[in-house]
Amino acid sequence: MQSESDGVQRSKATDEGLIQVPSFNLPISSFLDHQMRSALSHWRTRLEEWRKAGVPSGDSPEAILAQREYAERSFYPPLLTRYRAQYDVRIHLEEIADVPTAVIAPTHGLASENRDRVLINLHGGGFVGGARYGGQLESIPMASLAGIKVISIDYRLAPEHEFPAATEDVVAVYRDLLNHYPATCIGIYGCSAGGLLTAQAVACLQKVGLPLPGAIGMLFGAGSFWTEGDTGAFRPLFAGAPLEGSREHPYFRNTDPNDPLAFPLRSADVLGRFPPSLLVSATRDHALSSVVQTHSSLIRLGVEARLHVWEGLGHAFFFEPDLPQSREVYEIATRFFAGHLASSTRK
Known about the structure:
The protein is an alpha/beta fold. It has ten helices and ten strands. The protein has helices at 34-52, 61-86, 133-146, 165-177, 193-208, 230-233, 235-239, 268-271, 288-300, 324-340, and strands spanning 12-13, 19-20, 89-96, 99-106, 118-122, 149-153, 186-191, 215-219, 277-284, 305-314.
């Protein structure tokens, strides 16, 4: 048995429960095989290119706009090319309820069971980026694998707008779609900020009295701000950025952190009325704690909820199309919605 005198540095807990974690090297998970490691290496190269491009960091308006411009010019287009090579879809831009959207559908046509179903995608990007191209990345595999129409909403972003602008855009599009689809035939899903926005949309739909969607998916984000809980404290390790609270975020800086319309995890009444929910995360996702806590709360309140956590991978890992787990996420999501959305053959 070793002790600290043997030269082994150990974590120490204070009287308040704060643990001082010593510096250590975190190896790649031993569960990841060569193919997975190769794909992760390719993904790290893409992120390193972003760093070397000299794009300003931080959350000043100037930095955010520079980050958004770089992503739209250099980060997303190569990924879209790779996705379009793997998944055969057609895309057209359309305004719905005066909100810009991208409508993605499989080139080979809709599956017969999905002709009266539709999915709404709410893209990630921290409420400051991801519009159009990010949403297309999240929608292309779903549309192709499921044989379903996906409408990706380009909701309003910070720093130009603040909460609840994005929620208002989602509800406007959803309200319009109710003229064409029963609510039970509509699914909503989103990644990261889009996962939180999915929860916010459900909370707002409850408030305004609109029927809820048949099912939702919260991926790498859920019912609270993404840096809450244990894994939020690991954000500098996983995401290369310091821990921030919602009050420091340009979209939420004037928002009450206890407002359940912004953070539905704050209200058992709101969560208890959620539709069937799919939650997805990974062990190196800084939003894992938020996702897990939301799942636990939903289960405790009697809501049907399924949680899938992937080992050794990070936040929004499914943006790397060569990872086998990326396709797994989309296949699980398509099966979840297939099993919970109503259709002409399943009422």
